[in-house]
Amino acid sequence: MEGYWNDRFNKEGMIWGEVPSKTVYHAIQIFKDNNVKSVLVPGSGYGRNTKALSAHFQVEGIEMSHTGISLALNWDPKSNFFLGSVLDHISGNKKYDAVYCFDLLHLFLERERHKLINNCIRQLNSAGLMYFTCFSNEDKNNGVGRKIEDGSYEYIEGKFAHFFTEEDLMNHFDGLQVIEIGTVVEILQYNDNQRKEYILRYIIVRKLDR
Ligand SMILES: C[S@@+](CC[C@H](N)C(=O)[O-])C[C@H]1O[C@@H](n2cnc3c(N)ncnc32)[C@H](O)[C@@H]1O
Q1: C-alpha 143 to ligand 1 mean position (Å)
Q2: How far is CA 126 from CA 51, 80, 95, 119, in A?
Q3: Model-level pTM?
């Protein structure tokens, strides 16, 4: 996976252009309403979304691609970026008020998806918020290619993704308070002028104190 993303960022640079996802503006509003000051962004890529967040919050990104991080340091100098895998221990004992995670969750198989979510929960302050987006089962790529696991397909040769129903997404965040769940159409304007539309689901949850 690391080689794949290093290659892509090397060849394509800011793959999805400069415009952040509209979900980041939704997240900013909710984070502000909840007095969030610090945000962790797992799989921060070249900083497409951290740049919008870092105008309002203290932001740290964790990213496995060193090429992605080099681009991000230029594009979003206000955020801090760490090289590492979200599947390992994320950043010591540091805690954040919120997590924003755009289109990373669907890149993993079941065991790793739960690992990512649990690692993020561990980094949250009490009553912290998480905003995740992922591919919806209503997206046109769902069911395309070889089936790898329930709901997961190799929709491009050598690349698989998990496509979430609403129930499946809720189940992944079991034990957390669900604040909002919904669907959003993400239109990506690629660097090479291609325009692609993806149907995503998003979920906003709060960590419950136990
Ligand atoms: C689909 S891209 C989304 C990038 C970013 N969230 C955005 O919207 O611009 C997935 C990103 O997650 C990173 N990534 C994939 N697996 C990872 C892992 N295990 N740990 C940290 N980053 C990872 C990739 O290098 C890539 O930058």
Answers
A1: 23
A2: 25, 22, 9, 15
A3: 0.97
